[in-house]
Amino acid sequence: MSETKTALEAVAEATSSGRWARAGLVGAAIGVVAAGAAAGVAIERATVGRGVRRKALLALDTYGPYGTLRGTPSTVFAEDGTELYYETDEIESAPAEAAPRRGKRRRAGLFRRNGASPPLTVVFSHGYCLNQDSWHFQRAALRGSVRAVYWDQRSHGRSARGKDQLGGAPATIDQLGRDLKRVIDAAAPDGPLVLVGHSMGGMTVMAFAEQFPDLVHERVAGVAFVGTSSGKMAAVTLGLPAAATRAFRVLAPGVLRVLGTQVDLVERGRRATADLFAGIVKRYSFGSDDVDPGVGRFAERMIESTPIDVVAEFYPAFTEHEKTEALEVFDSLPGLVLAGDKDLLTPSDHSRDIAERLPDAEFVVVPGAGHLVMLERPDLVNAHLAALLTEAADAARAPLPQALRELGSAAAAEGA
Predict the structure, then answer these.
(1) Fewer Cβ neighbours under 10 Å: the N or C end of the chain?
(2) The domain containing residue 278 runs over which residues?
């Protein structure tokens, strides 16, 4: 906590001196904190000169395959005309036979078409200020073995800026739920579905269920909520002292609105103040200190690609998000609710609340992991996701490769 206090005191001192206020950078600095806190982005603390750090970042940009996996690209238009980008990974070989149905799961017969068992389609929804590449490790594990759809939410990644937002309308979680419906209609018009959402993506899935419960009852065979919340986000302390939390909640929306009108200045400010706020931003990304630097830089690049005006548009939607009752639509379905126990953005207690509403779901709290748990502990997340896919495939009598079944069995055997 001493590191956080030091940084906050530095901002206060700079602000009181008027130097940052005159330069217009104090708002940019707060924008960095707000954007980083919301997206959970990692920036390594600079302990060397800026030039050396720049070279190190360039080296990290070429290190590892993170974010390089691509599928078949497509687009679909949202209700307001926003072009939504998605990619589909198809099954590369003949699918395995479906296993006998296990347990009593409803809806299984609804998935069959003329006696055939269509494959599962897994639809991944990413979080705030991220993009579909945040599922890199899950995509690598599932690639070629299960049909999967990865999409960029409006104004994120390769999707277009939201037309409603460009016209001055606020971004809402309900609108994201309708966007997900458009993607599903285009990319997976029939067959059983498994919906997977991280952070804002999990909220999107909840909004989708609230607005399209019949589709969920007819086609959804499983659901996974990773590091997300069904509501009460205004009460999250962000790991700060009470006074700092109150100040952040009061100041952040207004500051971000102003920053959204000064994009060029703020983007320069974000770059200029990156080192100062590196320690604060890192806290909201990962729970451990031994994360691969390449993974940390990969997460940093995702936040860098999200314009500050997009950050400003979406931020207010989270305090308005209340979808606890929508979880009932998923009741009795195979499910996974997973969170890191050091997640400061959507604390694991929020996942516990979701799990209480979904008693048939597996509830997993990952020790030592933060908000980007799927990047921080990919092997564990992949194993539990494979277990969910196995259960969902059996409920829908859909084919699933034996390798994925074995991976899921390993997670079940661990009992974690």
Answers:
(1) N
(2) 2-65+239-318
What angle (nearest 5°) sits at the alpha carbon of residue 369, between those of residues 10 and 249?
A: 40
- Does a structural domain hold residue 98? no
Distance CA 214, CA 365 (A): 31
What are the phi and psi torsion angles at 52 (to 5°)? -65, -40
Considering the domain architecture, whether residues 293 and 160 belong to the same structural domain is answered as no
> Per the structure block, which two tokens stand in for 120?
């599962």
Of 287, 283, 279, which is closest to residue 373 (Cα–Cα)?
287
Whole-angstrom Cα distance, residue 126 to residue 136?
Answer: 11
Phi, psi of 132 (to 5 degrees): -60, -20
Angle between helices 25-39 and 263-272 (to 10 degrees): 80
- Per residue in 251-308, pLDDT tens? 566 655 555 555 565 555 555 445 543 455 567 789 998 888 888 888 888 877 888 8
Q: Please name the residue that has the structure tokens 């804002």.
A: 200
Listed residue (321, 338, 340) closest to 233, CA to CA: 321
Residue 281 backbone dihedrals phi, psi, to 5 degrees: -65, -40
Q: How many domains does the chain have?
A: 2
Same domain, residue pair 303 and 404: no
In a domain, 260, yes or no: yes
| Maximum Cα interatomic distance, the chain, rounded to a whole number of Å | 74
Q: How far apart are CA 403 and CA 409, in angstroms?
A: 10
Residue entry with tokens 């080192």: 275
- Mean pLDDT, the chain, whole residue set: 79
Give Cα separations from 51 to 25, 54, 237, 390 (angstroms). Answer: 21, 5, 35, 49
- 82 and 216 fall within a common domain: yes
Rounded alpha-carbon distances, angstroms, from residue 39 to 31, 62, 100, 216, 255: 12, 23, 41, 28, 17
- Span 50-74, average pLDDT: 74
**pLDDT tens-digit series, residues 357-398:** 999 999 999 999 999 999 999 999 999 999 999 999 999 999
Structure confidence by residue, pLDDT tens digits, 75-120: 999 999 999 999 999 998 655 555 554 444 445 445 554 455 678 9
Is the same domain home to 136 and 21? no
* Statement: the pTM of the whole predicted model exceeds 0.90: no
